[in-house]
Amino acid sequence: MKKNAKHSRSGSPWSFFTSGYLVLVLLFIYLPILYVMVFSFNDSKSMISFSGFSLRWYEALFSSRDMLESIWTTVEVAVIATVVSTVIGTVAAIGLSKARRLIRTIVLEINNLPVLNPDIVTAIGLMLLFLSLKVRRSIVTLTLAHISFCIPYVILSVLPKLRQLDDNVAEAAMDLGATPFKALTRVIIPQIYPAILSGALIAFSMSFDDFVISYFTAGMDVQNISMFVYSMKRFNPAVNALSALIVIVVTVILILANLIPYLKDKKNNKEEQET
After folding, report:
1. How far is residue 77's CA from residue 141's CA, in Å, rounded to a whole number?
2. Which of 258, 239, 235 has its CA nearest to residue 247?
3. Could you report the average pLDDT of every consecutive run of 10 residues in the chain (275 residues)?
4. Where along the chain do its domains lie?
5. Which of 30, 138, 202, 247 has the fewest Cβ atoms nearer than 10 Å?
6. How far apart, in whole angstroms, are the C-alpha atoms of residue 253 and residue 228?
7. CA 263: distance to chain centroid?
8. Using one digit for the tens of pLDDT, what is the confidence trace for 142-176?
């Protein structure tokens, strides 16, 4: 009976269907990315036929002043928005974890509004807010807008990890003489560091990728990369080179983000075994 059960599980048509479905999903997600990366080395402007290997579009990318300025603006805004929203979101999540249930529920419902709202609604709301305050739209308003919609994602990333922590650990640290700040920086934050890193990566990707909110909150003289691509009259294959570089950088960051903690844990385990 055990052999039959094992055979039925391994030869089940459902397992074949789920495996095939998974392959199709992965192809649907990653094939366009690979397609863009391959054609970033195409010698011609064609996106259909590969005429030969060339780095001309990478040269065009680094020689285009407008594109480099838009890239710099995108990175600058994304980094500032990530740092500020990660700090505010982490502190807010820690405060919410200690708050009363009613207050926590109300704040979380408000926090979910920017996440559930369509981007166009958030964009128009922020634009009207800046207009009502008579604030000239510029890179400052663009950065503030990005911070505002990145904070909820950080809170949603950090809060579940805080719920898994033992409250007695921080209290024990303070009983042993640690100040609340030291208990926060040396006890709580090291335990929720993976969640903070995940929230920061999500915030950075959301800011880097945003178009709709940026379009309504940036000034006439400010463009991030998504706005620059939207304003192009004709498709520039240098965008393929930019996309390929972004994919490579993101892949390296993800590998390092997963490899460094693994190496640290391996080193700590080795030191514990030696002692």
Report:
1. 10
2. 239
3. 49 69 86 87 82 87 88 93 95 88 89 88 93 91 94 92 80 78 82 89 90 90 87 81 87 82 78 73
4. 2-39, 66-254
5. 30
6. 25
7. 23
8. 999 999 999 999 999 999 888 888 777 777 777 77
Count the neighbouring beta carbons within 10 Å of the beta carbon of residue 147: 20
DSSP assigned state of 221: T
d(CA 167, CA 256): 31
- Which residues have CB under 8 Å from 242's CB, separation 6+? 61, 67, 71, 225
**Exposed (0-12), middle (13-18) or buried (19+): which is 242, by Cβ within 10 Å?**
buried
CA-CA distances (angstroms) from residue 5 to 11, 14, 17, 233?
A: 10, 15, 19, 62
| pLDDT score, position 4 | 52
Closest C-alpha among 25, 28, 52, 55 to residue 240: 55
Could you tell me if 113 and 151 are in contact, meaning their C-beta atoms sit under 8 angstroms apart? no
The Cα–Cα gap between 253 and 227 comes to 25
Q: Burial code of 207-230, b = ≥16 C-beta within 10 A, e = fewer? A: bbebeebbbbbbeeebbbbbbbbe
pTM: 0.80
Q: Name the region of 177 (left: φ>0; alpha: ψ -120 to 50; beta: rest).
A: left
Q: What CATH homologous superfamily does 66-254 map to?
A: MetI-like (1.10.3720.10)
Characterize 86-125 residue by residue with b for buried, 16 or more Cβ atoms within 10 angstroms of its Cβ, and e for exposed. bebbbebbbebbeeeeeeeeeebeebeebeeeebeebbeb
What pLDDT was estimated at residue 146? Answer: 95
133: its two tokens? 């305050």
Alpha carbon of 14 to those of 9, 18, 20, 27: distances in Å?
Answer: 9, 6, 10, 20
Residue owning tokens 């024990």: 172
Residue 44: φ, ψ to 5° = -110, 175
